[in-house]
Known about the structure:
The chain is an alpha+beta fold. It has helices spanning about 10-25, 25-40, 45-50, 55-65, 90-100, and strands at about 40-45, 70-75, 80-85.
Amino acid sequence: MVIDDELIDMDTLERVAPVIRNAAHPLRLRILDYLHHEKEPRTVTEITEAAGASQAIVSQQLRILKDQGLISSKRDSHNVLYCIVDPSVLLLLECIRRHDGMCVKPHNM
C-alpha cells in the first residue's frame, strides 16, 4: 500500500502540470532542446533550421512557449533572440533523454 507521504503532493503536481502540458508537443520539445544545447539566445532562423519546420510553424510554437513563460525573447538590432527562462523544462528534457527507448508498450486488452 502506498503511503500518502511517498506521493508527490497535489500542490506541486498542479504547479508543474501546465509546464508539462505546454511543452508536450514534439516540435516544442525540439525547440527547447535546441535552445538548451546552444546555451545562448538564438534567432528564429537558427531555431527554424534546427527544428526542420517552416518559419511560420516555428514562430507559432515559439509564441506558445513564450506565452506560457517557458522562454523569453529580446530584440537585438534586426533579430529577435529566444532563450529558456523556466529551468523546470530542463528537467523534463533530461527525463525524456534518460528514458528514451525504455518505454514499455501497453499490453493489448
